[in-house]
């Protein structure tokens, strides 16, 4: 695409000569108009902005310097080259103050002017490329940060409100229903999954990572704005942002579109990772504040469903026929929570509730509840594995029972055995967990100012990401991303007060490669941009308060 040039001179023969003498097309430029004074030029620029203005200084009505002043005040994005027959230094100084790119004396040396124009336009193109690259890096950084936040949101580990300082300029997420929620899961009891169960921990971790990458690359190739988050071993949640998907239609994706996306993801995983997954889709788009409930509804529906279809839709309410299953699921969730807390009494109470449900079901339990208990047992085993509460020998014994399809009584005994083992190991591991969290905190503090993932911190102390996240929140009262961000912001506040370092230097020192993202987070955390905060602390005086922050950083 050609750049645009405006010629401004009250002598028409000069503008005609400029039109003919400069090889505009070779320079990648086209002339969009000529003007005899600053007033005409300003009107033309307001109607059709130019990339470059060649302008005489001395003109009637409005001279060139006054024109440049108006251009800067109105923030019209263009470069200016001044043309003049006056060698007065005061003109040159004023031109420099207004950011004029160069100053050419008349009679115009056209070869020299051509070289100046080529240099100015080359600088423009380089600046645009640099800004584009910076924006790409910023977008990537925001995506990574958002993915970490979304993980905590899906697991309901963090409260997201407009006042939450993690929502750095992204408050619209809370209002706009914009996510399609697709949960992809390996069927842990299927024939396809048997080899996967027997893999070593390291192999399974690499495989989980590979599937995650396949899902991300598939959505990226489809040009869908997305986040893919591994929720636990063999389960992923794909979030497809919905407010930009069909802007020309102004509506959210329908069930047909959602199913097409799920089909695409399943086919890609089967082709690239050689594994058959199944998918559950939340039946409507969800706002950020609804994501946790949407994820849980789909996960619950997938676990309780006895259908073998590869893709199914689930809503916030299951069909009436699933009432008993829903009750059992709620009990199982409370059982898992009590088990992870080491609450032996709570585990015993929930086991009694399961037994009571089986008793109420009477003779129909074998046919109706057996599949549900089977799914609940699998769910419990996966949660125990994520929490590192299932020894290998017990896992193998439970898998054998699952494969043999024992009776309801045997399945209930397996659930009781697994949960009792879980609560016992939790009690034994409580002190060990406290040491793990202290070790994790030291590791995080040592690496606070680089991009540190939940996975890296969890691996350092030998835990799964979900169990690590739960323990960290229970121990310190905030999620990992909340802790890291708060520590970075507090350090930045100290550096602004105690050092003469620039905002750019401080942003890099506290772990933000992009100053604009640092400023966004800082404003959300403190209510002021970094420069305003520094000046307020110093009462607007002193050498540190003289630093000014460019508008685009605010």
UniProtKB/TrEMBL annotation:
UniProt keyword annotations, A-Z: DNA-binding, Phosphoprotein, Transcription, Transcription regulation
One of the Pfam families matching this protein, by short name: Response_reg
Statement: the UniProt record of this protein carries the keyword ATP-binding: no
SUPFAM superfamilies attached to this UniProt entry: CheY-like (SSF52172), Homeodomain-like (SSF46689)
Top-rank lineage group of the source organism: Bacteria
PTM-bearing positions, type 4-aspartylphosphate: 56
Gene Ontology MF, one: DNA-binding transcription factor activity
Domain Response regulatory: 4-121
Keyword Acyltransferase: no
Ranges for domain HTH araC/xylS-type: 438-536
GO annotation terms (biological process): phosphorelay signal transduction system
Protein name (record): Two-component system response regulator YesN
């Amino acid at each position: 695409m050609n750049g645009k040039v405006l010629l401004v001179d009250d002598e028409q023969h000069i503008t005609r000569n400029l039109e003919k003498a400069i090889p505009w097309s070779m320079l990648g430029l086209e002339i969009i108009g000529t003007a005899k004074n600053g007033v005409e030029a300003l009107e033309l620029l307001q109607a059709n902005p130019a990339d470059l203005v060649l302008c005489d200084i001395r003109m009637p009505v409005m001279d060139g310097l006054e024109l440049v002043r108006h251009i800067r005040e109105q923030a019209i994005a263009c470069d200016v080259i001044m043309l003049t027959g006056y060698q007065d230094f005061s003109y040159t100084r004023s031109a420099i103050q207004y950011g004029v790119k160069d100053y050419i004396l008349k009679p115009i040396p056209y070869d020299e002017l051509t070289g100046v124009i080529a240099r100015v336009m080359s600088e423009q193109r380089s600046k645009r490329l640099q800004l584009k690259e910076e924006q790409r890096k910023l977008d990537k950084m925001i995506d990574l940060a958002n993915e970490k936040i979304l993980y905590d949101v899906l697991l309901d580990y963090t409260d997201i409100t407009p006042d939450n300082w993690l929502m750095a300029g992204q408050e619209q997420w809370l209002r706009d229903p914009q996510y399609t929620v697709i949960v992809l899961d390996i069927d842990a009891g299927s024939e396809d999954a048997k080899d996967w169960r027997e893999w070593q921990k390291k192999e399974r971790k690499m495989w989980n990572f590979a599937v995650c990458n396949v899902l991300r690359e598939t959505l990226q190739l489809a040009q869908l704005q997305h986040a893919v988050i591994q929720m636990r071993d063999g389960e992923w949640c794909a979030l497809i942002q919905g407010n930009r998907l069909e802007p020309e239609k102004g509506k959210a994706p329908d069930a047909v579109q959602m199913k097409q996306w799920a089909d695409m993801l399943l086919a890609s995983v089967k082709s690239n990772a050689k594994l058959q997954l199944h998918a559950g889709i939340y039946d409507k788009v969800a706002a950020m504040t609804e994501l946790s409930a949407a994820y849980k509804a789909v996960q619950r529906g997938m676990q309780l469903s006895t259908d073998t279809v590869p893709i199914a839709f689930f809503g916030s309410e299951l069909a009436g026929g699933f009432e008993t299953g829903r009750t059992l699921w709620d009990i199982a969730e409370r059982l898992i929570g009590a088990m992870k807390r080491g609450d032996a009494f709570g585990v015993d109470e929930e086991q009694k509730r399961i037994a009571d449900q089986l008793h109420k079901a009477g003779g129909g339990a074998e046919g109706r509840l057996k599949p549900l208990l089977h799914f609940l047992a699998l769910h419990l085993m996966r949660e125990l594995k994520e929490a590192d509460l299932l020894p290998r020998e017990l896992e193998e014994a439970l898998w054998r029972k699952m494969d043999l399809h024992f009776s309801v009584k045997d399945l209930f005994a397996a659930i009781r055995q697994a949960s009792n083992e879980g609560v016992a190991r939790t009690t034994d591991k409580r002190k060990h967990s406290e040491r793990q969290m202290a070790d994790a905190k030291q590791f995080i503090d040592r690496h606070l100012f680089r991009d540190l993932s939940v996975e890296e911190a969890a691996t350092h102390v030998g835990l799964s990401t979900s169990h690590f996240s739960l323990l960290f929140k229970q121990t310190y009262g905030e999620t990992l991303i909340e802790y890291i961000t708060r520590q970075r912001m507090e350090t930045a506040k100290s550096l602004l007060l105690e050092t003469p370092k620039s905002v750019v230097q401080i942003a890099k020192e506290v772990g933000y490669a992009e100053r604009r993202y640092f400023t966004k987070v800082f404003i959300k955390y403190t209510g002021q941009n970094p420069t305003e905060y520094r000046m307020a602390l110093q009462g607007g005086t002193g050498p540190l308060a003289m630093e000014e922050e460019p508008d685009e950083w605010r």
